[in-house]
Design goal:
alpha/beta; 2-enoyl-CoA Hydratase, Chain A, domain 1; 9 strands; binds coenzyme A
């Protein structure tokens, strides 16, 4: 079975992460498929809404660490950065259903979604510092805005996870439901959106986003350049080696 399922039904495109044995971590191939799917959907009048969903036990554990080490994202044209540009500039509504862990880009991609529904088992985290990295997906800009600086600092500097309730309170999530109901709710809401006048949806999202579109694009590029460099540095190498070796990292020398 493919790692990413792409379905089109009733003017809704659904991307389902389907790599549960590796906790839905994203490979370069998955990023490329997601970037291409979003680019095609952007241009296709038959698609009005996009949905991201995972499994009721896991949304995504973020970048596939082994894949990242094999093909580090060192240029703006690599799949992960193509995906981030595609999702952040997507002009049609995006809906997400999140259950279980949403790690790294599993959380930061949600800053670019319009409606996020969470299972009560959702656990969000952005542990970039713990990995010797810096934020991505413009999360250094969007997390403080959405969460307030204090909570963003706990999430980004300490790498503390936060619950579905906390995400609801800060407005990252629109509603919490039992995990078995999250994907179905996201689909229903997407179908509701798809039945509305497209021009009104497009204009409304445009006006909600336009105030900071340039700043988001610039931050994506700036973070991406530093993130790529940091991947090759000793701190990230130690963090990734520790994860692969199923041990705790030792940052005492970095
Ligand atoms: N990249 C590559 N493989 C990953 C992965 C990732 N991001 N996340 C999980 N996996 C793999 C594990 O190596 C393991 O593989 P194995 O069965 O061959 O040993 C399998 O998925 C199951 O993961 P495991 O850690 O045993 O599951 P868990 O339920 O105990 O924990 C998580 C789930 C998501 C909390 C944990 O896997 C995790 O923290 N992953 C890393 C997240 C991360 O740091 N992401 C940011 C990357 S930039």
């Amino acid at each position: 079975m493919a790692d990413l399922l792409i379905d089109h039904a009733e003017r809704v495109m659904t991307l389902t992460f389907n790599r549960v044995d590796k906790k839905n971590s994203f490979t370069a191939a998955m990023y490329a498929e997601m970037a291409d799917a979003l680019t095609a959907a952007q241009a296709d009048d038959g698609v009005r809404v996009g949905v991201f969903q995972g499994h009721e036990t896991i949304f995504s554990s973020g970048n596939d660490i082994a894949d990242f080490l094999k093909t580090p994202p060192l240029s703006p044209d690599v799949p992960v950065f193509r995906f981030l540009r595609a999702i952040s500039s997507f002009t049609k509504p995006l809906v997400a259903a999140v259950c279980g862990p949403a790690v790294g880009i599993g959380t930061t991609l949600l800053f670019h979604c319009d409606l996020v529904y969470a299972g009560d088992n959702a656990a969000f985290s952005m542990p970039f510092v713990n990995l010797g990295l810096c934020p991505e997906a413009a999360s250094s800009l969007l997390a403080p805005q959405r969460m307030g600086y204090g909570r963003a600092a706990e999430a980004l500097l300490l790498g503390d996870p936060f619950s579905a309730e906390a995400a609801l309170e800060m407005g990252l999530v629109s509603r919490i439901v039992p995990p078995t109901q999250a994907n179905a709710l996201a689909q229903r809401q997407a179908q509701k959106l798809a039945a509305k006048p497209m021009s009104s949806l497009l204009q409304t999202k445009h006006f909600m986003k336009i105030g900071q579109a340039k700043a988001v694009a610039q931050r994506l590029a700036d973070e991406g350049a530093v993130f790529g460099q940091m991947l090759g540095q000793p701190a990230a190498r130690e963090a990734f080696a520790a994860f692969m070796g199923k041990r705790l990292p030792d940052f005492s020398k970095v």
